[in-house]
TrEMBL record:
UniProt-listed GO biological process terms: amino acid metabolic process
GO molecular function, one term: transaminase activity
UniProt family annotation: Belongs to the alliinase family.
Residues of the full protein shown: 95 to 484 of 484
Gene (UniProt): LOC112277308
Domain Alliinase C-terminal residues, every copy: 29-383
Reported cofactor(s): pyridoxal 5'-phosphate
Name of this protein: Alliinase C-terminal domain-containing protein
Lineage: Eukaryota, Viridiplantae, Streptophyta, Embryophyta, Bryophyta
Amino acid sequence: SRGLCPYFHTGVRARNQWKDDGPGGAACCGDPLLFEAYWRANPNLGTVVIPGWYRMSYLTRDNAAILYTDALLRTIRDLHGMVGNAVTKDRYIVVGTGSMQLINAVVHSLALLNSDRVSSVVAKAPYYSAYKVQTEYLDSPLFNFARDPARFTGNATGRGAQIELIASPNNPDAQIQEVPQNISEHVIYDHAYNWPHLSPITKASDHDIMLFTLSKITGHAGSRIGWAIIKDYNLYRTVQWYVVLNTLGVSHESQLRATQLIRTIIKSYSEGIRNEKGLFHYGREVLESRWATIQSILKNSSRFSLQELKPDYCFFFAQIVDPSPGHAWIRCNYEEDVDCAAVMLSAGIIGRKFGSGNRFVRLSLLKRRSHFEILTARLTKLVAQTSSST
Ligand code: PMP
């Protein structure tokens, strides 16, 4: 199998183009293929037929500089309204070619609006590795990746604006996070995982800048649809302009597909959220069970430990729900296991390192069932070997 994720390990790898994942590549990437089974089981949902003449123009309406279909924007707002995970009233929405494009679009735009100084882009470890790799690779004169926000204080003088990237729930460890006030001037909340199948919805997020992606909602990562919800009009216009200059908008086919997929979710819950056939029920059931499996494999291991997650009340499901994270964030506890990813690799499991040293490795729980079964078989064997050798 060919894998994209080795890109994100380090800046050096990032320039190495495609790299063969090898047979254990299953656990490396966050590619959300677990949703494929849902769409296969419901073939009448989400299907889109596109005639040859459909939206050939750059614009979505003749003679109007409109990048996105009204239907998509309305559907996104309706989805947030139904789920209750983000405030969209009186906010602007910019759609991008995946939230990957929007991470840079927002960082660049914030830096541009503070262009009298060089901004620092920071993220607290462990953070989604693309923040650093993308920022460094694009190598802008307007900003640098400066790693750890704790190194800066709110009242330091003569420094550039600090732009903090924070994923909440976090990738890799699924923890819900907030940035303490007065640390960074600008905070970009990446809510890729703030959906009821991945994490309990505890409130409607109301931050100045929030990013979302279709990839982790419906699993359609290949459609490359993400959106930013932005409070400030100037920032919204600047981010929009980035999308115009960078990709001249977003694929109209993808917009249509995203609209249809999201409408399907909304419709499946329109008769009340008890609908067990809904995508969020499906995703939660699969991920809760995968998490329980990983927990039971590692529970008696002294060599490996797993992140701690607690059940919490979810407003969407109107009940307390068990953890259902997209990733297992594993720590190698033995002193000699200095490189946790290498330990996994020795057992045929390719995990991913993040910006927090070599002691930890991330394993994806988001892939197809067959991949997950290979992962658990290999992990079980590794743990058993360890127990019998100690
Ligand atoms: N943010 C986070 C935290 C992610 O995990 C990912 C995908 N792995 C992205 C952004 C990028 O998502 P997209 O597919 O929309 O580019």
